[in-house]
Design a protein that fits this description.
This protein has about 80 residues and is mostly helical. It is built from four helices and no strands.
């Protein structure tokens, strides 16, 4: 996951609507079923999907009352903590 990408997506959600990102995730998930995709292409799609899910999660935290900075930091700490385990 890349924090600058998540921040950008979060701004997109704030200016538009989270439904756009959720529908894009569904589209990308559907694309992963194409049998002729190479591993590198699947990796890129997977990275995009994970960043989008991250932005959706941070948006939820902000809507629950966290500041954008605290929501981003808390989310990234959780992600890094799960990687370490």
């Amino acid at each position: 996951m890349k924090l600058p990408v998540i921040k950008h997506l979060l701004e997109f959600i704030e200016q538009n609507d989270v439904d756009f990102v959720l529908e894009t995730i569904e589209t990308l998930e559907s694309l992963t079923e194409v049998s002729t995709l190479k591993d590198e292409e699947l990796d890129v799609i997977g990275e995009l999907i994970s960043n989008m899910y991250g932005a959706v999660e941070v948006d939820k935290l902000v809507k629950e009352g966290a500041s954008k900075k605290d929501a981003l930091n808390g989310f990234m700490k959780r992600v890094l903590g799960s990687i370490d385990k």
